[in-house]
């Protein structure tokens, strides 16, 4: 991926975060169980916060971003991501969301490696960590609600 300027990179990242906000909003609307709706709404709010930080950085504000390592359970990595529709199950929603988060982790990791400034690199490392955290939480939910002992 080639960008003409640092602002183009931030604009791209902002578009991705706004798409994630819409995705979680849509998924929450499909969820029948209140705990799942609340969980997805929480992830939506976190994605909205990410978009706000990117917009702030584009406006010239600077931040200190704290990143931390989050484990990768890998529970959904080999699973098939089916298109979601009205008949999508709880399991389908968790898999689709975890797959999107894994894509976001890969994207932000790559953008961090290509960042031209320390502030942009820190932002993308922070976002990669946040998206990994989301994937982890989704996979924990998958593990506790879908994977059961027989």
Question: What are the SSEs and their pairings?
Answer:
Elements: H1 6-30, H2 34-58, H3 90-114, H4 118-145
Helix pairs in contact: 1-2, 1-3, 2-4, 3-4
What does this structure look like?
The chain is mainly α and 150 residues long. It is 69% helix and 0% strand. Helix 1 packs antiparallel against helix 2 (34-58), helix 1 (6-30) runs antiparallel to helix 3 (90-114) and helix 3 packs antiparallel against helix 4. The longest helix has 28 residues, at 118-145. The radius of gyration is 16 Å and the shape is elongated. It starts with 5 loop residues before the first helix and ends in a 5-residue tail after the last helix.
Per CATH, the class reads Mainly Alpha
- Could you please say which CATH topology applies here? Ferritin
Written as H for each helix and E for each strand, in order along the chain, the element string is HHHH
Mean pLDDT: 85
List the defining traits of the structure above.
150 residues; mainly alpha; Ferritin; 4 helices; 69% helix; elongated
Task: Give a concise summary.
The protein has 150 residues and is an all-alpha fold. It has helices at residues 6-30, 34-58, 90-114, 118-145.
């Amino acid at each position: 991926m080639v960008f003409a300027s640092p602002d183009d990179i931030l604009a791209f990242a902002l578009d991705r975060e706004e798409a994630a906000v819409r995705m979680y909003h849509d998924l929450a609307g499909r969820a029948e169980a209140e705990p799942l709706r609340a969980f997805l709404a929480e992830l939506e709010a976190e994605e909205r916060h990410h978009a706000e930080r990117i917009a702030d950085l584009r406006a010239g504000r600077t931040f200190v971003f704290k990143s931390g390592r989050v484990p990768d359970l890998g529970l959904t990595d080999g699973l098939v991501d089916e298109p979601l529709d009205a008949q999508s199950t709880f399991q389908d929603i968790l898999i689709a969301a975890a797959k999107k988060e894994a894509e976001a982790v890969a994207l932000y990791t790559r953008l961090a490696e290509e960042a031209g400034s320390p502030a942009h690199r820190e932002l993308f490392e922070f976002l990669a960590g946040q998206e990994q955290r989301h994937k982890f939480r989704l996979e924990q939910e998958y593990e506790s609600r879908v994977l059961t002992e027989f």
